[in-house]
Amino acid sequence: MKTSAALFLDLDHTLIRPKSGETFPKDADDWEFMPKMLNALWYDIHHTFRPIVIVTNQGGVTAGFHTIEEIEAKLAKVKAALVTHLRGNFDYKYPTEVYHYCAYNYDFMRKPMPGMAYQAAIDLNLDLSKSTMIGDMDSDEQFAKAVGMGFRHVDRYLGNVSYTAPLNVREG
User: Fold this and answer.
1) Measured between alpha carbons, how far is 135 from 9 in angstroms, rounded to an integer?
2) Which residue range is the domain that position 67 belongs to?
């Protein structure tokens, strides 16, 4: 079976941001897509990557700010809105997965540990060496490096307003 490259996305401050303007969202409805993100994703998923894989640490659960149910509700809403937009506007037919959020501070699934990437690779038959992670934190970059995938900081990714070329698939 042929493996595919995926576009891995961090959630908070990469794919979405709080609508309230706060650093952390107040509830499951306090989010909006990052400006320019949907157009950037459209370009890259049509030229290079399939599928999109969302990976996120959610330490607010351990800290008592949110419950697992609130995080799961937020993730379901984000995924539904993303899939609706991509399929409705761009005829996107590939999986969009919310892959293992990690609510605990010390766990193999918590970035920068590679657990979420390995699980996604197994479940979706991905070639991590040809995949790219987009994120805003050092832990996102370390996560990508731990599994041999490329990394792009979200500010650099969204700052590329021309979109004249997709992200390069890493040759492996």
Assistant:
1) 6
2) 7-159
Q: Which amino acid is at 78?
A: V
Query: Within 10 Å of residue 45's Cβ, how many Cβ atoms?
Result: 20
The pLDDT tens digits of the residues spanning 99-143 come to 666 766 778 889 999 999 999 999 889 999 999 999 999 999 999
| DSSP letters for 64-96 | TSS-HHHHHHHHHHHHHHHHHHHHHHH---S-E
10 among annotated binding-site residues = yes
Asked whether residue 12 is marked as a ligand-binding residue, the answer is yes
CATH number of the domain where residue 67 is located? 3.40.50.1000
Distance CA 53, CA 123 (A): 11
pTM: 0.84
- How far, in Å, CA of 43 to CA of 64, rounded? 38
Annotated active-site residue 44? The verdict is no
Q: Residue 106: inside a domain, yes or no?
A: yes
Residue 12 known to be catalytic: yes
